[in-house]
Recover the amino acids of this structure.
């Protein structure tokens, strides 16, 4: 939806989960010398100011990255993610929060490539500003990211992380996620696909994780973070999740260590919770 602006939610607990896992997936791909691509279907603006503009209206970072900023007891993998955000702030106060593309830019190597798609004209223009000077390594297009995947896959190096993170403001976006994955897996079955999804009372949100588990894949990992109980009125997001297709084998164990910590620190009034599932098909 062109009305959606991620700046309202920058640095939220949802971003913490998404970007912490993104860091781990990119670190895994970079372990081999062979190049890989990072593909982002809904790239957003790239970087967000937390002390001006949209982000100040709800200040969602106060229940997300801000709760981790000064802690000295972070698990090692989580500390790596927080350190990346601190580098973007030049090790000063928390004023900027990186979107998924900027997180990726800090982790990819000279031989790797990024393909970023953003349909919102204002965010697309900001994205171009964020990545000015990286023309040979970063391709940005103002197109529908779902549609772009069909022509893009498989990527030339046959190694990639595909991040799918739509706003889910339209109920049809849930089905578009599934359709894009089905098409993508036909062309690039061995890629790593990471899908962020919200936990809401609406039926489409409740059904999506189960539908993702039915996709014909070799392995999947599903992790969700709840920060509060669902409201009695049935409105609002009470948690979120990441569904990863073809996850690195060590990711499950890492999340077993980190998720209890995130649930404790980011949960509201002691209501934090998590769920971690993994399946590998022979």
């Amino acid at each position: 939806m062109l009305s959606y602006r991620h700046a309202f939610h920058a640095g939220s607990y949802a971003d913490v989960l998404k970007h912490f896992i993104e860091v781990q997936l990119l670190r895994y791909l970079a372990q081999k010398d062979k190049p890989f691509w990072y593909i982002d279907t809904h790239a957003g603006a790239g970087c967000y100011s937390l002390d001006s503009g949209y982000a100040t209206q709800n200040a969602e970072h106060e229940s997300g990255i801000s709760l981790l900023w000064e802690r000295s007891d972070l698990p090692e993998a989580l500390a790596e993610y927080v350190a990346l955000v601190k580098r973007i702030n030049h090790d000063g106060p928390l004023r900027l929060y990186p979107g998924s593309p900027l997180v990726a830019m800090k982790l990819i190597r000279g031989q790797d490539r990024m393909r970023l798609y953003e349909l919102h004209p204002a965010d697309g223009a900001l994205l171009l500003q964020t990545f000015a000077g990286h023309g040979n390594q970063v391709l940005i297009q103002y197109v529908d990211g779902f549609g772009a995947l069909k022509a893009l896959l498989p990527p030339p190096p046959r190694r990639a992380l595909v991040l799918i993170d739509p706003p889910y403001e339209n109920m049809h976006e849930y089905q578009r996620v599934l359709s894009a994955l089905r098409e993508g897996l036909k062309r690039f079955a061995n890629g790593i696909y990471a899908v962020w999804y919200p936990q809401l009372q609406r039926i489409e949100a409740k059904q999506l994780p189960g539908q993702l588990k039915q996709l014909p894949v070799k392995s999947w990992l599903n992790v969700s973070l709840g920060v509060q109980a669902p409201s009695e009125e049935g409105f609002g997001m009470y948690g979120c999740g990441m569904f990863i297709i073809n996850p690195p084998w060590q990711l499950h164990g890492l999340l077993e260590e980190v998720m209890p910590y995130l649930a404790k620190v980011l949960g509201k009034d002691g209501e934090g919770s998590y769920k971690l599932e993994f399946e590998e098909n022979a």
The mean pLDDT is 92. The radius of gyration is 18 Å.
